[in-house]
User: Fold this.
Amino acid sequence: MNILLLSMPDITPVVIHESAVHMPNLGIASIAANLDPGHEIRLVDLVRKRRSLKKYLSRLVRDFKPDLIGLSSMTWQFDTCVKIAHLLKTLRPQATLVLGGYHATLMYEEVANSPDARWFDYMVRGEGEIIMQRLVRALEGNDTVEHIPGLSYKRAGIFRHNARGENLDLADIKPPVRDKRRLTWGYHIVTKKVEVLETSRGCTRSCNFCCMRHMYGRSFRTYPIERVLADLDNIYYERKTRWVFLSDDNIVLNVKRVMQLCDGIIARNYKNLMLTVQADCLTIAANEEMVAKMAQAGFRIVFLGIENGSKKNLSQAGKGDIVAASKQAIANCHKHGIMVLAGLIFGFPDDDAAAIRENYEFFQEIGADVPYCQLLTPYPKTGMRQQLIEAGMVVNMDDYKRYNGLWANVRTRHLSMEELQFEFWLQREQVLGWWRPPQLLRQEGRFWTSLWRFVVKPVLKRSYERKLKEQGWQGLYQEAEAHWRGMNHFPDLEGY
Assistant:
């Protein structure tokens, strides 16, 4: 069977310009690796084909002639996913189309009862490796779709949903595909090649704005360390890549395991390895020995979900009072040469313009290196969404294309949705100003950071200041908003 697996082209610039970071989709790579031998498999990350989607897919489908096409989509990417599915059904009507990813997992009933259902033959809910493996077997007559947990299938044009399956034993999951079956290349963070690695799945924290528990439940599972190190060897030696993003939801939930993993990495004596990972403030703050070991192993950037400087807002987010822990976590990271990417959320029910400004000032106060700023988003099935709906705060209920953290979808008690969007942009411009590369990035990328600091930024800054005098803040905001609107608009998919 010819099997084509696709990830969506939509991206969002919450940290840096949208063209500066393109990473491979680990989900489709893992699914491909766990299909039975004997199939012709191709992987495509459409983030690398944003400028020529229709042309590229038309040529690919014509040449490869896929029998099954899997599409992985986040909720905010689903609008594009539907258009691509329509295009694919037009190009190859006989192909079986399978929808997977977060949107299929969280919103399978809504998809099944919508006009969009006509483009999909199956939906994979939850972890897809074994479901897809069994679905392919069923299509070949060696299994039965009615008996595959986590699968939604059609009968007489109507979707039926099997019961949800149990979480997988990660020891049984093979490492992801990174070879020539992956047709797209050029994955990067600015000028550095990047790959994605997974060492665990799930999180046991209680953040009520997060939809992770609907993918895995409130659980934490780990891959065998030997398997992780073998995958890292492949990235380092075969892919010749030094910057690795660990996609774990919260790797530090098992401190002892982190230490063991770091020991394994240190023993391999990699040179110039640069690991980036997500972690929680409480664990990083309470375990400086672990942080020191992480630094020794090559961890250079840690994303911390700090979220807000307001204790009330943190309580509403299910985070608890972590302000002191946030400061200690950042201090621990900096002490051992690790850069901190700080996650901040804006637009809680009591926020006004001053509160938004104070949150940006809080970022400066705690000394984090790079802000990861998002607007509070009522993601489907989350406790936060239900709270906001009950409070009458959700203005955009179902235009999910805007559910990417960049757009305001709620109002506050003091700001309309439009005012919140403006203040989120304005206060960042006024408080944080122009980006200043942290010392670590200056060391790792001397050429491009110097080019930015001494050539590109001065030129852009002069142009910006001239526009500000001519147009004012509102004029500059309208330009920024127009850019956001066009960022994930793909003209060649119009009509689908």
Q: What stands out?
A: Residues 191-440 form a domain with the TIM Barrel fold (CATH 3.20.20.70). The two ends are 27 Å apart (CA to CA).
